[in-house]
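# nightly structure sweep
# worker-07 picked up a monomer target from the shared queue
# config: single-sequence mode, recycle default, output format = structure tokens
# input follows
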Amino acid sequence: MPRIDPWIVADLKRENLLKEGHWAFTHGGHSRGLIDRDHLLSDPVTASHLAYAIAKEFFTDHIETVATPSIWGAGLALLVGGFLDPKAKVAYATPSEDGPTLAPQIADLVREKRVLLVDNIIRSGETMTRFNELIERLEGEVIGIATLWNLASLEIAGHTVFGLLNSDYGVFHNGACPMCRAGSTPEPAPY
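# output follows
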């Protein structure tokens, strides 16, 4: 996995959007990093840099639509779509009791299209798995899954997840945390 540009990490730290330490996440996993998911995309310059880095990973995949299962991923999806060449359309899901859904009037944005699934953070992988199933039921071809940070499995629904921050801030599962082995006690993360 390619490393994130060091100036993006420095920018995140300078804006207090990334803290270092030892964190334990709600859905499992430990990491030496913690991002402020609520403010992460509030700065247009930082958000643009992050979105460009994700889009760059998929430049040659001829993405037609960027789809997101959550409101947190909406701004990121719009920016990623704008950086792709040719520009991609964006499809936003709406929440329901059964998970994310697409309004019937925008189903044409994914039907028989090459689709990149994007969200700001993937916590457990459940939402993205259900969203992938929805896109496939609508006959969209899921080309990849991308996120700023993947706290779940490296693969979801048969797709390798591109987590932008994961190359520098890995997430350790099932007792594989080197910080725990070194005797460090993790702080609970807010998500």
